[in-house]
Specification:
By secondary structure, this protein is an alpha+beta fold. The protein has four helices and three strands. Strands 1-2-3 form a three-stranded mixed β-sheet.
Length: 96
């Protein structure tokens, strides 16, 4: 095999994930795992689930009070998530 055809394993995995459109799902799982680190234990405790679809993050909460409080912080949350991932992963946040 010539040096031109050699690729690093991370490059191959990235291409594979993009080809089969799994990279978005992987980032959704990563976001779920990092949620407590990003927003703390209290918000994590009231978060039932979340789904990332076409740049829109749907966050399902078990408390209407927490949902109302977070409603005013959506732009800051979006900024924190995008900075954490180093790209515009989330364009909008919908709280339910």
């Amino acid at each position: 095999m010539s040096d031109k055809n050699r690729k690093h394993i991370s490059e191959i995995i990235t291409l594979y994930l993009k080809q089969f459109r799994l990279d978005g799902k992987l980032k959704e799982v990563q976001l779920t795992n990092d949620w407590e680190k990003l927003f703390g234990k209290t918000i994590n405790r009231y978060t039932r689930s979340m789904k990332l679809s076409s740049g829109v993050l749907y966050v399902y909460l078990s408390s209407s009070v927490v949902r109302q409080e977070l409603h005013f912080s959506r732009e800051d949350m979006k900024k924190s998530i995008n900075e954490h991932f180093g790209e515009e992963l989330v364009r909008d946040i919908v709280l339910r």
